[in-house]
Amino acid sequence: MSHIDCDICIIGAGSGGLSVAAGAAQMGARVVLVEKGEMGGDCLNRGCVPSKALLAAARQAHAMTKGAEMGITPVTPEIDFAAVKDHVARAIATIAPVDSQERYEGFGVTVIREHARFTSPEEMQAGDTTIRARRFVLATGSRPMVPPIDGIEDTPYLTNETIFDLRERPDHLLIIGGGPIGVEMAQAHRRLGSEVTVIEGAKALGKDDPELAGRLLDMLRGEGIRIEEGAKVTAVSGSNGAVAVETEKGRFEGTHLLMAVGREVVTEGLGLDMAHVKHGPKGIAVGDDLRSETNRRVYAVGDAAGGLMFTHVAGYHAGVIIRSMLFGLPSKAKTAHIPWVTYTDPGLAQVGLTEAQARKAHGDALEVIRADYDENDRAIAEGRTEGMLKLMAVRGRPVGATILGAHADELIGVWAIAIASGTKLSKIAGAVLPYPSLGEINKRAAGNYFSSRLFGNEWVKTAVRAVQRWVP
Length: 472
What we know:
25% strand; 472 residues; NADP; 3 domains; FAD/NAD(P)-binding domain; Enolase-like, domain 1; seven-stranded mixed beta sheet; 14 helices; alpha/beta; 23 strands
């Protein structure tokens, strides 16, 4: 048995835990990082990185079937599904050293590869090591949620933790869940040659703007993806290569089943009751400062904090608590400026309030401005004119933005920065951007806010005429 005293003990080596560990150790704190599984967490090994690598391969395959309007003869690509998975594995392996144990030990972090549990409000046990810390950070992440559907225990199914290990292409992939993970995997597998059926009990992409989400779903259906909404699942059955899903709208049959109905926070086995840490199904009970409501030594970041389940949120949380833990300064987590993206092609991105949320919050003060991709010269030149930006503005400032279209994931960043900093639309409208670029869509949307105020306004016309008459 060994004993360690430290300033900060972190449980979980995903995005949030690694960010806290690197920042705190490099600024002089004594840091212990405990991880029982893979360094890099779900995002690197089973989530963000492998899914985007798979989507990239699918996009490449899809591009080969297009191009006739540009004089390029479409061809049917020959897809080696196992080689696609090799590409996914290489992407993970290339990034892995950045999250490796060796790198963090180089920062001065003590890394322990064991399961950790509290033995008291001030101590944890990890293997044969007792850790006493001034502060604890729970960055334990989440895992795929598998609801208790009739027959699920006897039916083979995949989750995001297992689907990327699949070396043979599914002939017909059934996906239960029409959220971002479900539709991303649907498009990826459809473009790589699988038949795909998405089964959603309510509304697919139900957390996004209905107008633009609906347009995206129509595009996915146009690619041959079957999307069944309002199809509550009642039972599943089958064996390897032959599965079936029973719903209130009928029976669906396929060769493989993917569960993509959401995620659940990992908190069991941590001894939270021993540490007097209040928790529930949604995670650790924390305040805006991300500290436990019942044990002020304990913080939670990322999924464990019970809020938005995104990798970039975990990284953001790390910065919030580092300010508090290392410098004793007040610091609170906010959500109004947090973007999220469904990484389909085209993508669907959101930051701030949707139109419905903004109308509820601001009433008649809200103005909704639109800018279409087919009015952007770069989009026209590249044949990517499908899509739109919807901007929600109140008294000259953005309160939300929704983008459907090419590179929506990159374009949404401008609005995330604007909302976070309180930037006025006049600043964005006045920016000088390279021509031609998709970024001009953002500038056009901001400019459209002022168009109705300037063009056709009789007061403006009167003023202009007076200036032209009297000013030399």
